[in-house]
Amino acid sequence: MAKDEQRITDGTARSEGISWTELMTVDSRSAPACLTQESYQYRGSAPLPVDRYTSEAVASLEREKMWPYVWQFAAREEDLPEPGDYVVYENAGRSYLLSRQDDGSVRAVHNVCLHRGRKLRTTDGTADKFVCPFHGFSWNKDGTFAGMPCKWDFAHLVPEKLGLPQAEVAHWGGYIFIREMFGGPTLEEYLAPLPDHFKRWRHEECTTALWIAKEVPANWKVTMEAFMEAWHTIITHPQILPFTGDCNSAYWTWGDNINVNLVPFGVLSPHLDPKGKSQQWIVDEFVKYNGRSADNYSNDPFAVTVPKGMTAREALGNAMRAAYSSSTGYDHESATDAELLDGLVYNVFPNFAPWGGYMPNIVYRWRPGKTPDTCLMEVRILTRVPKGKPIPRGAPMRLLSADDKWTACTEIGVLGDVFEQDMANLPYVQEGLHCSKTGEINLGNYQEIRVRQFYDTLDKYIKGQLGGFKA
Ligand code: FES
Ligand SMILES: [Fe+2]
To answer: Which ligand 1 atom is the nearest neighbour of the CA of 136?
Structure first.
């Protein structure tokens, strides 16, 4: 359709079937404001250009105008729990060392030797000093210069000025963020209202139980955006339709940086004919195919019988509430069915997506690859550490190549099959975008509002309306 023929809309149309808001009113517990206060704003219906996914010039603009100015999720606290522990975090043409200091704080320094530029570290580890493996220039773990061999030949260098350049560091909810450029909004300002919502779900009590990274032959935004709406379920993940309110999901945005997709589980998709489908059948399908059920991360069998007159959601909510309270020692009596069952998938601009709720939580991160046609997608599973127990060191990252399948990592259970279904689209999206005749893509007004908000925000950085600050 030509641009001047674009139909006028206000974005208020919604799918048939029970809406998210209605579901919250029949939850077996009273739902918190973060799940009931709708926050949708229509942002226009214009097509988006495909070069945002395919062009090296756009990737270069992102590296110059966006990445240095945003708070990036760089590590979890449990990745570097002890003084001297360090992790290498690389993204968008930069490499950083995050290092735990003796006072418990974390420093982030650029991981590049100031002699002739070797990366100081290429893997995570523990050290009080970073000695460059090339000629032996060395730095203390706080980034101050420690010394070099053949000092007589470097009389022109001033040791006090040889500190490694630092990045800004801030913490929230067990996550460590860095920002290349100092200044600009604080992390708290940047994340609002997400920390308020997550007060109930307390990710700081969780640890990384599983962490998988996979090279994907598609742009980082193509890959991320495949996880920003639930409505592809109808064709990409048909096995979960029996218990997924795919097109009854809610899509809300706040400001420039935060959005959520609230996906109800334990309800029949409006795409399926309800005739002859019992509430027990919904539960049985959920237990078979849902990647976040309690049985995926423990050895306990998980069987739920729906009493007469009860909904699948309530029965599943009751079962999860009991299982989760006993396995963690926390009282989850007031937890809504929604917070125990549903996909509460938040995204933080630009590339971090923590799931809310109480169950083992999924955390996504996407990083651009060396060309616009590749990226690294990471999935962490956070589990709640039982009450009173110390938080154990996080699981290390397992890297899967472009040829490996998610299902090669058996610990991820049925989620591996779901991710494989997603992966089956992505290389062909990337190829399709490259050969697009129109040079444009089109978005749904409601179910793809998160993609449009992301586009708007990135555009503000590229145009210099956001970022660009100097400390
Ligand atoms: S490059 Fe690091 S000491 Fe020479
Ligand atoms: Fe998917």
So the answer is: 3
